[in-house]
Structures are given as structure tokens and as C-alpha cells.
Specification:
By secondary structure, this protein is of the alpha+beta class. The protein folds into two domains: 89 residues; 233 residues, Bira Bifunctional Protein, Domain 2 (BirA Bifunctional Protein, domain 2), CATH 3.30.930. Helices cover 40% and strands 20% of the residues. It has a seven-stranded mixed beta sheet with strand order 1-5-6-10-9-8-7. A three-stranded antiparallel beta sheet has the order 2-4-3. A hairpin with a 2-residue loop joins strand 7 and strand 8. Helix 1 packs parallel to helix 4, helix 2 packs antiparallel against helix 4 and helix 5 crosses helix 10. The longest helix is centred in the first third of the chain and has 37 residues. The protein is rod-shaped, with a radius of gyration of 43 Å. Tetramer of two alpha and two beta subunits.
């Protein structure tokens, strides 16, 4: 029996050493160490062995079992490491190869201009307010002192949804909503950026949809000189510290007095060129003192409080700032155009 065990040990050693697959090792484990394996069979037949030989046979069988378990475990580890090495070679990546570049997006030039304008006015103590793009006719027109027969009410200028609801034609409705929400409290210093809609034919300088930013200040003793100071500070932050502005008399139903605001031409520095038509000035926005009737309709005492308002087209500012000659470039999603502003 001892010689049989030693022969079995040598046979198992050779078989385990020759195995080169995991399934072969599993078969060898079952063959030698399984419930019906050869080592197990010998141990179960101990009753047929003479009593004086049982200790030697049992000790050798257990020794061989332990050795075979160790050899199989070592062989399994060897095969696993070899398989991993082969897999790594097969799936190896050359990290020195150039990567697959992914195109990166960037902030749209109009969004960049809006953010810059917001930062400028926030730095002067303004808050940012918003309002709905679908607006009541009463807020969009009547609360701003625009009578029923005013040309701006004409269906040719506005997108009406119902006789009382339309797509807002300006962001001035934000000042109405802001004043009503404050319920007569001061000070009020807000700007309201957003989209507006008008029934315009799209061309190089007009669009049926564009962006505006409304500004409003209401408090005791607010004057035209403060309006001039705020807009001068804005122009210099936006277009350069050497900028000058001028206010020209104009008319808006919701301000009195009203003024168009020009900046010195950013192309020629005010000397006169084709861009400014030889005047040295370029118009950028409309402004004025809030009409007393607008204040009163919003719940403010016009004898006690005054205010000023201004409104600018974002596209107009962006076109001047970046030298764009056609407003449609901002909306056609031409990547050749947009890539020019990735660092803006």
C-alpha cells in the first residue's frame, strides 16, 4: 500500500506539472482529492489494511493529500498569472499615441456679453430680476403708459396669443413687476435681461427675436445726473476707460424726459468714420426719468419718489464690442463664427 501511495504521488506530481489549463486542474483535483478520488478511496479502505500498517499508511496518505492541494493551488496561481499577462498583452494600450480630441463648447458671445453687463451693474449695487416672456398686454403696455392707440400696440409690431396675452416686446415689463412686488418700498435698483419678440423682418440689423436688458432705479431724489453717471460708468467698463457718452432728447411713453444715449465711436475714437457716419458718435440705448404715471400705477408716490430707466439691446452691444456686422450671425449656429469667441 505504501508503494502504491508513492507511485500515486509521482503520477499526480507529473500530471499537475503538465497541466496548462484551469479545467485540467479541476479534473485532477477531482481525480485525486475528490469524494471518489484515489486518495479518498485509500483512506476509506483503511479497515482492510493490517492494524500495524494503518498508522504509516494514514500518515503518508494525509501527507500526499496536503502536498497535492499545495501543488494544485500553486499551479492555479501560476495559470492565473499567465492568463492575466496574456490578457494585458492582448489588451495593451499605447499611451504615447495621440488621443481622440473632443470638440469643446464655449460660452456664446451673447451670453458672455450679458454676463459682463450683469457684473458691471451688480458692481454698482443693482440686482438681477427676471420676468416671463409670455406677458399680459396690461403689463407690457398699459402699465408703461402706452395707450391703446399707440403704434407699438399694432398687430404688425407684436406677436399676440390672445387679445390680452402676447410675447413681450421689451423687458420693461420687468420694471412693472418689480415695482409692484416692492409695494412702494425703496430703494429699487434692478436690471432685467431677457428675450423679447417683435414682428420685424430679419436682416443685418433686425430680428424677430432678440435680447434686451432693462435697468431701473427708484428712490428719493433720483435725478438725470445720476442716470448720466451710471451710464458713463457702464460705457467705460464695457468699451474702455476713455469712452464718453452724450444724451440726446427723445421720446418714450414710459419716461419723461427721455434720451437716446450715444458713446464715442469705438472705431475712430470720435474723429468720424463710416461706422459712425462721420458724427463721432454711436447710439447704444434709450433712457429717461420714469414717467410719474408709471410710478403711480405701480403704487409709488410720484411726489415723493423719482427714478430713471434705461434699456439696451444685447446684440447691439455685442456687435459694437466684437465688430460683428450682421445680427444673424448670432443665431445661425455657424461654428466658424462661434469658434472665434471661445476665449471670450
Amino acid at each position: 500500500m505504501l508503494s502504491r501511495l508513492n507511485a500515486l504521488r509521482e503520477e499526480a506530481r507529473r500530471s499537475i506539472a503538465a497541466a496548462d489549463r484551469s479545467d485540467q486542474l479541476k479534473e485532477l483535483r477531482v481525480k485525486y482529492l475528490g469524494k471518489k478520488g484515489e486518495i479518498t478511496a485509500i483512506l476509506r479502505g483503511m479497515k482492510d489494511i493490517p492494524p500495524q500498517d494503518r498508522p504509516k499508511v494514514g500518515s503518508l496518505a494525509n501527507e500526499i493529500r496536503g502536498e497535492l492541494e499545495r501543488l494544485i493551488a500553486e499551479k492555479e496561481k501560476e495559470l492565473d498569472e499567465r492568463a492575466l499577462e496574456e490578457r494585458l498583452k492582448r489588451e495593451a494600450l499605447d499611451v504615447t499615441l495621440p488621443g481622440d480630441p473632443r470638440p469643446l463648447g464655449s460660452v456664446h458671445p451673447l451670453s458672455a456679453v450679458i454676463e459682463q453687463i450683469e457684473d458691471i451693474f451688480i458692481g454698482m449695487g443693482f440686482e438681477v430680476a427676471e420676468g416671463p416672456e409670455v406677458e399680459w398686454d396690461e403689463i407690457n403696455f398699459e402699465a408703461l403708459n402706452i395707450a391703446q392707440d399707440h403704434p407699438a400696440r399694432d398687430m404688425q409690431d407684436s406677436f399676440y396669443i390672445t387679445p390680452r396675452i402676447l410675447l413681450r416686446t421689451h423687458t420693461s415689463g420687468v420694471q412693472v413687476r418689480t415695482l409692484r412686488s416692492r409695494k412702494g418700498e425703496v430703494p429699487v435698483r434692478v436690471i432685467g435681461p431677457g428675450k423679447v419678440y417683435r414682428r420685424d423682418e430679419d436682416d443685418a440689423t433686425h430680428s424677430h427675436q432678440f435680447m434686451q436688458i432693462e435697468g431701473l432705479v427708484v428712490d428719493s431724489g433720483v435725478s438725470m445726473s445720476e442716470l448720466n453717471g451710471v451710464l458713463l460708468a457702464f460705457a467705460r467698463k464695457m468699451f474702455g476707460e476713455n469712452q464718453q457718452i452724450r444724451l440726446r432728447p427723445s421720446y418714450f411713453p414710459f419716461t419723461e424726459p427721455s434720451a437716446e444715449v450715444d458713446i464715442s465711436c469705438i472705431i475712430c475714437g470720435g474723429r468720424g468714420c463710416r461706422t459712425c457716419k462721420g458724427t463721432g458718435w454711436i447710439e447704444i440705448l434709450g433712457s429717461g426719468m420714469v414717467h410719474p404715471r408709471v410710478l403711480e400705477m405701480a403704487g409709488y408716490d410720484s411726489e415723493k419718489y423719482t427714478g430713471f430707466a434705461f434699456g439696451m439691446g444685447v446684440e447691439r452691444i455685442a456687435m459694437l464690442k466684437y465688430g460683428v456686422d450682421d445680427i444673424r450671425h448670432f443665431y445661425t449656429n455657424d461654428l466658424r463664427f462661434l469658434r472665434q469667441y471661445q476665449s471670450v
